[in-house]
Specification:
The complex is a heterodimer of chains A (about 500) and B (about 450). Chain A is of the alpha/beta class and about 500 residues long. Helix content of chain A is about 35%, strand content about 10%. Chain A folds into 3 domains: about 1-65, no CATH class; about 90-345, Aspartate Aminotransferase, domain 2; about 350-470, Aspartate Aminotransferase, domain 1 (Alpha-Beta Complex), CATH 3.90.1150.10. Classes of the chains: A alpha/beta (about 500), B alpha/beta (about 450).
Chain lengths: ~500, ~450
């Protein structure tokens, strides 16, 4: 019944109710209403809800019941690495010795916080094989942008101003070209071979003195390792470009091989994917950016440094690519990721990638008789099906995704990558057990059977969710994006 | 390892099912020279007991101070119920609401967030939130240029918070936007200089702050007309908490409002996570980056919420994107939504009244010490700048000894003090007495 709850917080409002308490007034004689000139005051009252504290607790608890998270069930959303989000991370992020620090504190008053930042940056450098990291960018896409700024700054500082193009594979995450465009770079697409990797022969003619670099993820979005990476690295470096590693797929190789050793110069990491910080319904995450030796000075400001006495300080380098955030990134997220690394320790970090890859291959092999696997072979942390093997039923990838919701699963990533028409991208992560995967496999097979025997039940799914398929067309044609607009 | 469910038996069965002999087979295709074969130089695994002790020890290296610093980050009251609600796994561990049927919780709170931000700013529409106020403002600048098509210059008032300005300048440097500064006069934007700089008919947008970096509530009468006459958009970076009492960006005639939601009860967290907001008029909605949630119905006619207007986004023509933001700062949007629900318009007004009283009381007492004078004779709310006759560093050091974070140094002879509803009279008096005794 709770799932039928459908009130907006505004609809609970009743004039005169309050949800806050403040101390007794101590300072009299300074009246804002008389002190502030009238023409600076707002003319209307903002229509915020008037509700009690308990109203608010019950309302949002009921809303949470209409949501699905990793804590609820299996979340095989490809490229998003929906692994378990440990609660000790949350406890440390809420540690009162860290949450009340103002960013303008003198550094000697924030040595503990700076040490956390510094240690996490050092750990990420070790794990990725690069020289130095900034944790200032707020998200993966933000890290991409900050990383490309470093790439451009590197060329500009050398006076090499004509390098304004960046090469992006046709299988790349959608953010890659968007980040490049925002960074003022022109995008050149490189094609994939039939087995899904970058076509080195297609790449060669693209390389000239206008190329700033190439953006790649390895393994790529099909979950396939780019084995030609040493050759690609040699070619791109020979032409004067840099290699950017999109760290969205880092979980696949965590502990097994390192982007720095593959030849990458700049990379970002999604702490909310690989390092277990929660996705929070779409943020806050954090997108640390690492660089190889020789590029450290281009990292965004401010940078956290350690002096000979072990004291931490902030430095702003004038060669830096600039400022991308308010201060030092999402510090609360940094606390979480550092806690995760401490929990895993050096002995367990190296098992993350292998177990994630094992899980992915186990699911892939079990399902490839029912779902069409366009590229055979051992995958890494994720893999892509191109719809059902039996296309005659008319059941689409969207229908399959919606039917999975009925069975208590989040859907995989669908219609990405764009290389196939009916992409279903599955990433199980290392924190799922064999039993969970077995149940998922059984349900996927059941959906495939339903598609053949009773396609309508799949095409009209979901049936048991808090709401069913939505009218997205009307939502876009007559947008109502606030309560006021909704009331009309 | 408690996060790995695999038993040795599981591993063997799973490898066999996948047609593999060993774990090494999972990486067989990777060139030998790329494989990492040594131990990581990382600490050994810690238990929860050890982690708590370790972090407690690190925490002791931070000083817990009574905060009179502002400059964009303020020490406001955070109601107790917010953390337990946003820590619910259904909110915390969800991703972007790609599957609306099982994401109505996220979608509805974003809708409520959008509604409340529009109430505070007076704007027609806002997105599902941005990373922080600095990046929201940088995106506002890019919106101006995208809307203007053939203009790439944006004017920024010298009274803008320099932390915001430097992020705007960084984005602009790479994006090809030209930033020009409008001079300040007596602590506020020099409107004559603004008029001059608009005269070239080449300005896409004008970026202003409210309250400004010095805490001054600027009078922007006539500025919207000045901008619009020259076909430039007016962008206002406004502190959302103060908009419960101050004239809204919409009432000033702004086309875009942006800023940081930290003042809506978010702990200072050493710089983040906070939440940025970005709102605009209806006519600019197609240029608004990020996600937007709209209301609709499902096939059974039930009210529901969904990501909408996605054709604006990078999904289409991504190589020509004006923004690369993919998601939002969702959980922090929920944070401020709960805050605004609890406080209501009365609570927010009360917070501003308390802060106003505390700040004006402090200002008066500081001037009475003879060591400080008001830097500007202009209206302010909860923050103000003073000129100091002794070196600001000396003042800050003396305050630090008393456990007070005493303002932010903004010039060789200037300190910026912020007073929120959390500061008691005793704390203010101690600050004043300490300065008096220097």
């Amino acid at each position: 019944m709770i799932r039928n709850y459908d009130k907006l917080i505004f609809e609970l409002s009743k004039e005169g109710r309050v949800g806050y308490s403040l101390p007794k007034k101590e300072i009299d004689g300074y009246c804002m209403c008389c002190g502030l000139p009238d023409n600076l005051k707002r003319e209307t009252t903002p229509e915020l809800p008037e509700v009690t504290e308990f109203d608010v607790v019950r309302h949002y608890t009921n809303l949470s019941n209409k949501n699905f998270g990793v804590d609820t069930g299996f979340y095989p959303l490809g490229s998003c690495t929906m692994k378990y989000n440990p609660r000790i991370n949350e406890e440390m992020a809420a540690h009162p010795a860290f949450t009340q620090l103002h960013p303008s504190l003198p550094v000697e008053c924030a040595q503990g916080a700076l040490e956390v930042y510094y240690n996490l940056a050092e750990s990420l450098a070790e794990i990725s094989g690069l020289a130095a990291f900034t944790l200032n960018p707020y998200a993966g896409a933000h890290g991409e942008l900050a990383g490309l700024m470093i790439m451009r700054q590197y060329h500009m500082q050398r006076g090499d101003l004509k390098r304004t193009k960046v090469i992006v594979p046709d299988s790349a995450h959608g953010t890659n070209p968007a980040s490049a465009a925002v960074c003022g770079l022109e995008i050149v697409e490189v094609k994939s071979t039939a087995n899904g990797t970058v076509d080195v022969e297609d790449l060669k003619p693209l390389l000239d003195d206008t190329i700033a670099g190439i953006m790649m993820t390895n393994p790529n979005t099909l979950g396939i390792f780019e084995t030609e990476i040493p050759e690609i690295s040699r070619l791109v470096h020979e032409c004067g470009g840099l290699l950017y590693y999109d760290g969205a797929n880092l979980n696949a190789v965590l502990g097994k091989c390192r982007p720095g050793d593959m030849g990458f110069d700049i990379m970002h990491i999604n702490l909310h994917k690989t390092f277990s910080t929660p996705h929070g319904g779409g943020g806050p995450g954090d997108g640390p950016v690492g660089v190889r030796a020789g590029l450290e000075q281009y990292l965004p400001n401010p940078q956290v440094k350690k002096d000979a006495d072990g004291k931490f300080y902030l430095e702003c380098d004038e060669k830096s690519s600039g400022y991308v955030s308010n201060f030092l990134g999402n510090f609360g997220v940094i606390m979480r990721a550092y806690t995760y690394i401490l929990t895993l320790g050096r002995e367990n970090v190296k098992m993350v990638g292998p177990l994630a890859v094992l899980n992915a291959n186990y699911v892939k092999e079990a399902l490839k008789g029912d779902y069409y696997l366009p590229i055979e072979g051992v995958c890494k942390h994720e893999f892509v099906f191109d719809g059902l093997v039996d296309k005659s039923t008319g059941v689409t990838t969207l229908d399959i995704a919606k039917r999975l919701l009925d069975y208590g699963y989040h859907a995989p990533t669908i219609y990405f990558p764009l290389l196939f028409h009916q992409s279903i991208m599955i990433e199980p992560t290392e924190t799922e057990s064999k039993e969970t995967l077995d149940e998922f496999i059984a349900v996927m097979k059941k959906v495939a059977r339903e598609a053949a025997e009773n396609p309508d039940v799949v095409k009209s799914a979901p049936h048991s969710t808090p709401v069913r398929r939505l009218d997205e067309t009307t939502a876009a044609r007559f947008p109502k994006t606030t309560y006021k607009q909704m009331k009309g | 390892m408690k996060y790995f469910p695999h038993t040795q038996e599981d591993i063997e069965q799973m490898l066999a099912a996948a047609g593999l002999k060993s774990m090494d087979d999972l990486y067989a295709e990777i060139p030998e020279q790329l494989l990492f074969n040594r131990e990581f130089a990382l600490p050994e695994a810690m238990s929860e007991i050890e982690i708590r002790k370790f972090m407690d020890a690190l925490g002791k290296k931070n000083s817990q101070l009574v905060c009179f610093a502002g400059a964009g980050v303020e020490d406001h009251y955070s109601p107790s119920i917010i953390n337990p609600i946003i820590s619910r796994g259904e909110f915390l561990t969800a991703y972007t609401p790609y599957q609306p049927e099982i994401s109505q919780g996220t979608l509805q709170y974003i809708f409520e967030y959008q509604s409340m931000i529009c109430e505070l700013t007076g704007m027609d529409v806002t997105n599902a939130s941005m990373y922080d106020g600095c990046t929201a403002t940088a995106e506002a600048v890019m919106m101006c240029v995208a809307a203007a098509k053939k203009r790439n210059k944006v004017l920024v008032s010298a009274t803008m918070n320099p932390k915001v300005k430097r992020v705007v300048e960084t984005y602009s440097k790479y994006n090809g936007v030209v930033i020009e500064t409008v001079a300040e006069k007596d602590g506020v934007t020099d409107l004559a200089d603004l008029q001059n700089k608009l005269a070239g008919d080449d300005v896409a947008g004008v970026l202003l702050a409210q309250p400004n970096f010095y805490g001054i509530v600027e009078d922007y009468s006539g500025v919207a007309a000045m901008c619009h006459e020259k076909k430039a958009l007016m962008v206002m970076n406004a502190n959302p908490s103060t908009l419960a009492v101050l004239k809204t960006p919409a009432e000033w005639g702004a086309d875009i409002a942006c800023g940081d939601g930290q003042s809506l009860g978010i702990p200072m967290n050493y710089g983040g996570p906070y939440v940025g907001y970005l709102a605009c008029t209806n006519s600019l909605v197609r240029k608004l980056p990020g996600r937007i949630v709209g209301s609709t119905t499902d096939v059974d006619g039930k009210r529901a919420f969904v990501l909408t207007l996605q054709a604006r986004e990078q999904h289409i023509r991504r190589e020509k994107a004006n923004s690369n933001i993919c998601s939002n700062q969702s959980l922090m949007a929920l944070y401020v939504t709960i805050y605004m629900s609890l406080m209501g318009h009365k609570g927010l007004k009360e917070v501003n009244k308390r802060s106003y009283a505390g700040a004006h009381y402090l200002a008066e007492k500081l001037v009475a010490t003879g060591k400080c004078s008001m830097a500007f004779d202009k209206p302010f709310l909860n923050e103000f700048a003073v000129k100091t006759s002794v070196c600001p560093k000396t003042i800050q050091a003396a305050l630090l000894e008393k456990g007070i974070l005493g303002g932010v140094r903004i010039a060789d002879d200037m300190l910026l003090f912020c007073v929120t509803e959390q500061r008691t009279k005793a704390e203010i008096d101690l600050l004043v007495e300490t300065i008096q005794n220097i």
